Amino acid sequence: MEKTNVERIKLCCAKCGFTIEEYTATELAEVPRKAKRYKYLLNKSSICPTCLASGRLKEVRTTEEATAAPAPQVEANSSTAAPVQHEAVPDSPTPMMDELAKGPWPSHAKELKQTKYPVPMYEEALQKRTTQWGYGGYVSLPGVAAGVLVRASARPDITKGSNFLRIMDPCGNFFKTDAMRGLCDIADKYAYGLLHLLSTGGDLEMLGIPTENLRPAVAEINKLGFDVGSTGDDYRTSEECVGPAKCDLALYDTLGFRYAWYQRFLDDIQYPRFPHKVKCKFSGCPNDCVRGAQKTDIFVVGVFRDLPRIDQQKVKAWVKGGGDIGLICTRCPGGCMQWDQAKGLSIDGDSCYRCMYCINKVSGIRPGGDRGVAILVGGKMRGKYGPMLAKVLVPFMKAEPPHYKEVFDVIEKLTEVYDANARKKERLGDFLLRIGMNEFFQLMGIEPSPLLLGQPRTNLYYHWEREEVKDERQP
Amino acid sequence: MPGIGIPPLEANLPPIVKRNYGKWITHEHPRPGVIKHDSETGEACYTVRAGMPPNARVSTPTLRRLCAIADEFSEGYFRLTQRNSFEFVGVDPARIDALIARLAKEGFPVGGTNRSLHNTTCCTGYIHCHLAASDPAAIMKAVSDMLFEAYTTDSLPAKLKISGSGCINNCGEGSCADIGIVAVHRDLPPIHVEKLKGCEVPLVISVCPTGAIKPKGPGMVEIDPKRCIHCPACSVACAAFAPIGSPDGDGVAIVVGGKTANTGYGPAFARVVVPYLPNNPPRWPEVTSTIKKIVDTWAANARQDERVGDWISRIGWEKFFQRTGLPMSLKVVDGYDARSLEYARTNVRFRW
Lengths: 475, 352
Known about the structure:
Chain A is α+β, with helices and mostly antiparallel strands and 475 residues long. Chain A has helices at 25-30, 32-42, 95-101, 108-113, 119-128, 177-190, 214-223, 254-270, 292-295, 312-320, 325-331, 357-361, 405-421, 428-435, 437-444; strands at 5-13, 19-24, 45-47, 54-65, 133-141, 144-153, 161-168, 174-176, 194-196, 203-207, 239-240, 280-283, 298-304, 309-310, 337-340, 344-347, 365-366, 371-377, 391-397.
């Protein structure tokens, strides 16, 4: 049999030589996603999960026989090895935490004490009025490119540090108790036994995993049917509102949409390669329970175009039952509602915002039937230039289950434009601020529409291209 | 081995949800902490909502106890909400009293629906973060204890959301809430020269919002103290600039009027009304008393269904400061704002 040689390219920590990721030369030449990811890793400074040194990675090329064993991945039968445990922290008095254990509300201080969390880290932070943790960041492990965070300790006398895993939450944040018990078992076996339910980004976080335990813990989480991700410059864990699962107002199937999202974009969710993180949230209606307009780079929200539907009989029954219809008419932000004892409720179509207020409050009013989604982009809480609300990119499009191809195509194009044009560590909102909405619409190939505007410009400066200047009098 | 993604759509859905998926027609709030959804199939789904410890930090023993309750009362399923409440979905209406009593015994309050204080949310703060300028978990514990009655009764003019962030990265969403706390740093970041070697110096220079970091000879940078806005952008990008903060430098700003629904005046971020209050663990009396002042004034003056921001937009900021008695200072006036995207639409209140 003829021997073929395979060139392997490893990206290793420059200090300790730990392999972060590994590719074959053929993969890099033929798989664009891998090539992008490779280039991304080479051009950034990374934190090594074993020695915690931060810096550029070292590239190591080796040639091996094709029959050689594949690169070490997450061990599947890892449960046989005994998990490493954190050193026990001796008990010490905790006056601050004891104070926080009092009162009627459930106490996080009590919870911390029931776990292997190094309690003095929190107690001393409260006493000294400053955090006791040290620098940290996102790391990749061989086979686990996203989902692992390391946190160094500023108090090595108490604890050496602590890693944690981000686990992507199931659809609608519903949990079967058996699944949650499984996660509890893993947290007890490998970590502090302390969970974060959920982070504001929508992930379930498992705190305090020694470095040696990370890969076996990920393997067991996978065995349970869950997966890790949502760190670094990729699509972060998307969050959906409860939608049709338990809400009468959902204008599209947010759970199905998010599930389809994971089917289509899983690679970009688990292998960071964008200029910066891209957060995505999906809300079923303009009530926006997931706070997408404020928090996310890509926000897909259910909207309807026709007017709210009024069931006069039900509204009358609601008024009879003590409902304050006068309040609804006054509090309507468009001021478009009129109540007449005999004729019932009427809506002035020109001034209705489709804001959901009357629908939320009166049981006889339902959203209209011409339903679809709007896509908003560039919302964020910090980035370079502070909080920004998301801006309308697509005011209305149909969301077609089960694959939502048209909507996802727009989002994919958006990410490509962002990937190709944004600077390193520039959030989408900051990128929009730098290039301007008009140029962004051009890059996206979006037709101008008043629905995209808060208002037209008041600024009179405008740059006309040479080609645009011609004699308008000539037909 | 990653590549699995999220569990299948229906794997974790309770049976009552599967039977009525997309068929709900209306909802109501029969009592505080309980929501009733009616389906076109004629079925009604009762949900009981319980409050969680601040930062939704739960130990596995506690979580196992909650799971046991879910097994007993909601067919072995539960839901975690956007604001970290623990929801028992599909509870038999005849057993709601028993469930509430059982939760009370285990130390979990039921409430946070309709016109009440909703579950507070916050970031991890001192528990596990190197950037924290304060401990929002402890502050939220103090706030929740103080406003406990507002959580368990429907006694407010509208819903009230209170959130806390431990630094201006705002992971705890302080700026999204009706009343938010956002911890702030006031110190210059350090420069640990020995760690600069592991950094991408050009990246650190470019992430600084005000251009306060400048190169100074080979492999060295300097910080312009006049331009620094104490955001931890450089501390995040490079270990040489961490940790930022000190016991007396760090503290808490209070912001009000954030919301995301398109009702009322539409989505908006909260605005700074108190630029700085000191860190005073374990119960932050200065912060809690300021929040109490704002909540009491709002509750006494707002009209029905008027959230904090709606109320302020009706009465104006001059009345807000007058009624709450909060001191006005130049420090709540924006001295740093590079935003000019004012022409873009930020809501979906279309007039088709």
